Amino acid sequence: MALKNVVITGAGGNLGRVVVEKFLKSGFRVIAILSPGKSLAGDFAGELCSYSVDLTRERDVNELTDELIKEHGNLDIAILLAGGYAPGNLSETSDEALKKMYSRNFETSYFIARNIHQHMMSQSAGGRMVLIGSKPSLNPTEAKSSVAYALAKSLLFRFAEILNAEGQSKGVVTSVVVPGTIDTPDNRDAMPHANFSTWVSAEDIAYAIHYLCTEKGASLHDPVLKMYGIR
Question: I need a surface site. Which of 9, 13, 103, 188 has the fewest CB within 10 A?
């Protein structure tokens, strides 16, 4: 049986590397998408190939997805992890800040998701897509300190609804995973006095994403999975 292809953006990040490893160990062929200048550090076993692209540049993304389809055939799963956080309350949120967060957290998903979704719609087996939301985009109290970030991430929920409305007849299902604070070295350095035991691990998120993309998760439709850690 041919290996299923999974496209993972943001593959070079703390969460991305864990998700890459999870899918490789589960027998998928991983197509890792990295930002220009980034590398996929680590010793991975399995069928892995990587590509570099600026996900905010529509033309470059169009060219990349055409290349992926030509080289790999069916793209069965797309896990879109690319994004970035920036703090800022309402008075600090300028036009520039809004545009930066919109580009990093919406365009990085929109351009490639649109293309892969259209490709999945043409496949007899459909496909699975996972977007990454954020807790501030659902929680106004937390959004107060990261306005641009929360607004940009909030668009992904409506985008997922649109993709699911389109994909329903063809078995293309888009899920949104909403992490709380992820337990990564970077976050520990940024918040050294926090209670790390309440955070959600990258491994748990990778497990949940993998479940959504397997046959066992096939009965889930339009799922929004909140992973806020231990309260």
Answer: 188
